[in-house]
Design a protein that fits this description.
By secondary structure, this protein is α+β, with helices and mostly antiparallel strands. It is built from 8 helices and 8 strands, in the order αβββββββααααβααα. A 3-stranded antiparallel β-sheet has the order 3-2-5. It has a 3-stranded antiparallel β-sheet with strand order 6-7-8. Strands 1-4 form a two-stranded antiparallel sheet. A hairpin with a 5-residue loop joins β6 and β7. The N and C termini lie far apart (151 Å).
Length: 249
């Protein structure tokens, strides 16, 4: 019984030692190994990793693309409109050593940086630009984040602004603005049509003035159009002297 009682602690100790020596990293994992506090130049893995107990320690890093929801941010646009904006960022670790050594928590640091960058970039644009030029704003935010996180071994591959929430009173103001804009365009189109019609009428008047017979034919054509409108009586002026001249001729 005494031998069995001694064997159990030894087996437990052996299990602890073996698990501290042998590490297995998955295909998407890398291990940053510290030897007496000093880190190697390259991350280890994937596969079987052997560590020297007590002397070496390892920290695992996930190399897959990570998706992070940026919490809703209160942003004041350049035209002094208060909006609530949230976004999503896609990033991954490209250098596991720098991600561990250069920053305490690269996930939290990237999240905080994304929030401040989102407010900073959108605050430089008008509300119309936020609503209509999301692709450009997404690219600008992605480039800024990618540049600033490069020192941490992080690659920001994409940024997408999901929602731009505007106050209800501002939505009504935008609707009135859009209605006024459509009315303005309608008036401009109508004025352009009147201008073009007046120009054509002026050209037609010049042509008719050079040919009296053409003017008479146009007059008779107008009478025919009026007669086709089911009018009971048509009264039109006609020169008697001109009619007599025609009969004499």
């Amino acid at each position: 019984m005494g031998g069995i009682g001694l064997l159990i602690p030894l087996l437990a100790l052996a299990f602890v030692v073996i698990t501290s020596i042998i590490k297995v990293l998955k295909e998407y994992e890398r291990g940053v190994i510290f030897t007496l506090g000093r880190v190697g130049r390259k991350a280890a893995g994937p596969g079987l990793i052997l560590l020297i107990p007590i002397i070496q320690t390892m920290r695992k890093v996930d190399m897959r693309t990570l998706v992070h929801d940026v919490p809703t941010q209160d942003v004041i646009s350049q035209d002094n409109v208060s909006v609530k904006v949230n976004a999503v960022i896609y990033y991954r670790v490209v250098d596991a050593v720098r991600a561990v050594v250069q920053v305490e928590n690269y996930m939290a640091a990237t999240s905080q940086l994304a929030q401040t960058t989102l407010r900073s970039v959108l605050g430089k644009h008008d509300l119309d630009e936020m609503l209509q030029e999301r692709d450009k704003l997404n690219k600008d935010i992605q480039e800024i984040l990618d540049h600033q996180t490069e020192a941490w071994g992080i690659k920001v591959s994409n940024v997408e602004i999901k929602h731009v929430d505007v106050d209800q009173s501002m939505i009504r103001a935008i609707a009135r603005q859009a209605e006024a804009e459509r009315e303005r365009r309608s008036k401009v189109i109508l004025a352009e049509g009147e201008y073009q019609a007046a120009a054509k009428l002026s050209e037609a008047a010049q042509v008719l003035a050079t040919s009296p017979g053409a003017m008479e034919l146009r007059y008779l054509n107008s009478l025919q159009d009026i007669a086709g409108d089911r009018t009971n009586t048509i009264v039109f002026p006609f020169s008697l002297n001109e009619l007599a001249d025609r009969f004499r001729s």
